[in-house]
Amino acid sequence: MRDMTDEPKRPAHHREPRQARSAATLARILQAAEEIASSSGLDEMTVSGVAEHAGVAVGSIYRRFEGKEQLVTALTERMLERREEYVAERLRAAEPSLPGVVDAYADALLQSFAESGNLFPELMRARGSSALDRGARTITEIHRLLLEAAAPHAHQIRRSDPEAALDTVARALLGACFHNSVRPDPATGEAARRRYADELGDMAIAYLLTPDRRRTTRT
Known about the structure:
Blueprint (H helix, E strand, L loop, with lengths): L17 H23 L6 H8 L3 H5 L5 H25 L5 H19 L2 H32 L11 H21 L7 H19 L11
Helix pairs in contact: 1-2, 1-4, 4-5, 4-6, 5-6, 5-7, 5-8, 6-7, 7-8
């Protein structure tokens, strides 16, 4: 009879670390919340609905969030972080030239707003001043990313203050992209978005490569 002690031991079934499982569950919850809010609006988003959509127990959400308000806060944070990461990624991959950097910045902003649709403005309104404060930090970060990416090409800028000119470009492009996301007839679809991004990039480059106008002092 075969000695069973000679049987090689089977490895124990691998269990995903608890922390990783928890992170994956949180990601599913936030993704479900975003999908519901995007399709039906924040008013229609409920904790029970998010749980069902994510395939988790309602208790899993309440172990992480006190209620819907905290869930909305986390969703806002997730979207803003994703926007920062996406702009950074696009700028790292940009063509190494001033037009390349500006075009990548404009296209990245348009794309990130297009992905969130009307949800991003709705989140900003729903969370009030706290969302505006967090949004301001994201604006500061993406401005910094543009300045950093454009720094090697700043000698091409013909404005008297290149850094201030880049800041103006960052603000103008951000405003244009935000406006496009909330206007009744936004540039939608890949072709329309790229065309609008090209127009914004051309406008910004024309400004950066144009010397300051001479202003006469009125007496």
